[in-house]
Write a structure and sequence with these properties.
There is one protein chain. The protein has a 5-stranded mixed beta sheet with strand order 1-3-4-5-2, with helices on both faces. With 190 residues, it is of the alpha/beta class. It has one domain. The radius of gyration is 17 Å and the shape is globular. The chain is built from 8 helices and 5 strands, in the order H-E-H-E-H-H-H-E-H-E-H-E-H. Helix 1 (5-14) packs antiparallel against helix 5, helix 2 (39-51) runs parallel beside helix 3 and helix 6 (133-139) runs parallel beside helix 7. The protein is 47% helix and 15% strand. The termini are far apart. The protein has helices at residues 5-14, 39-51, 67-84, 87-92, 96-111, 133-139, 155-168, 185-189, and strands spanning 22-23, 56-63, 123-127, 146-151, 176-183. Strand 3 (123-127), helix 6 and strand 4 form a beta-alpha-beta unit.
Length: 190
C-alpha cells in the first residue's frame, strides 16, 4: 500500500452509517400476522430497486389512507429494510463474537474497495424529517449500496430529495435508491 492509499483505506474502514441523513430501521417493530394492504407490491418494489443496475433509481409506494393500515405498511418496510441491511443475517449468526467477526469482515471488504455483490448488506434508513435534507444530501457519501426511504415527507421535499439524489449520484460509485412512500390522492378519496 502506498502512502497516498492509506488515507483512502482508513477513511473507507472508518465510514459509518450516515445518521445525519437517515434513521436506521427499527429491529423492535413487529409485523402484523395478517400482513398489510400493498405488502406484495412493497416487496416487489424493494426487490426491483435492489436489483437495478443503474447508479440511481427511485420508486413511489402508495400508502393507504387508513392510519392503522399505514402503520402495518411501515412495520413491513422496517422488516424488509432489516433484511436488506444485513441485520437479520447478522442476528442469525448467534453469539456476539460471530456477529463482530461478520461486521469486521464486511468493513475490511469495504476498506479494500471491493464491490459488494448481491446478498451483501446495504445501508438502509428513513430520511430524517428533522434535518436540512438538502445540506445532508450534499454531504452524503455512500459507503455501500444505500436505500433511503422517504416516509410521508411533504411532496415538495420528496421531489427536492429526488432531484438532489439524481444529480448527485456518481456513476461507478455505490448505487443509491430512493423509495418515496406517500398517500396518493386516489387512496385518500376512496
Amino acid at each position: 500500500m502506498t502512502h497516498n492509499a492509506a488515507p483512502g483505506w482508513l477513511a473507507r474502514f472508518q465510514a459509518r452509517f450516515d445518521t445525519q441523513l437517515m434513521l436506521p430501521p427499527d429491529a423492535e417493530v413487529t409485523l402484523a400476522a395478517s400482513g398489510c394492504v400493498g405488502g406484495e407490491q412493497l416487496t416487489l418494489t424493494l426487490q426491483a430497486l435492489a436489483n437495478s443496475r443503474l447508479p440511481f433509481a427511485s420508486a413511489h409506494f402508495p400508502l393507504h389512507a387508513d392510519a392503522p393500515e399505514r402503520a402495518r405498511q411501515l412495520a413491513l418496510l422496517h422488516h424488509q429494510l432489516l433484511d436488506l441491511d444485513g441485520t437479520r443475517q447478522m442476528q442469525s449468526l448467534g453469539g456476539l463474537w460471530r456477529q463482530r467477526a461478520y461486521r469486521l469482515g464486511l468493513k475490511l471488504r469495504e476498506a479494500n474497495a471491493q464491490v459488494l455483490g448481491p446478498g451483501w448488506p446495504w445501508d438502509c434508513g428513513f430520511l430524517r424529517p428533522d434535518v436540512d435534507l438538502v445540506r445532508a444530501l450534499a454531504q452524503f457519501q455512500p459507503r455501500r449500496p444505500s436505500l433511503l426511504a422517504a416516509w410521508q415527507l411533504p411532496e415538495a421535499v420528496a421531489e427536492t430529495v429526488l432531484h438532489s439524489l439524481q444529480a448527485g449520484t456518481p456513476a461507478g460509485g455505490h448505487p443509491v435508491r430512493l423509495l418515496i412512500c406517500q398517500a396518493n390522492q386516489a387512496s385518500m378519496d376512496g
